[in-house]
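Fold this sequence, please.
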Amino acid sequence: QVQLVESGGGLVQPGGSLMLSCVASVRFFNIHQMGWYRQAPGKVRELVARITTGDGTTIYADSVKGRFTISEENAKNISSLRMNNLKPEDTGVYYCYVASGGPLPNYWGQGTQVTVSS
């Protein structure tokens, strides 16, 4: 069974930084994209960042541009999300995903909580 496991979440003060990691239990041979969504309480899940593994193209939500950086090491089945200058509105559960064989996510992690608060 394929598993994606996130780590690195936690409580941080505004202006702080966190690094989220997502490790897959298997080696994917046809990854199209890797990325991160988040869901804040009472809100719909939104795309935070994604990277196309073929050419390294990245896309970010407007609210995180210039603060978050996504990276991937396909050979190691790892996706990371570096989050700097965190704001209270970044609070939520962050989910990593893998889109294998096409552009739509078909594997998800269980989520990791990020709380930005003073």
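The mean pLDDT is 92. The chain has no helices and eleven strands.
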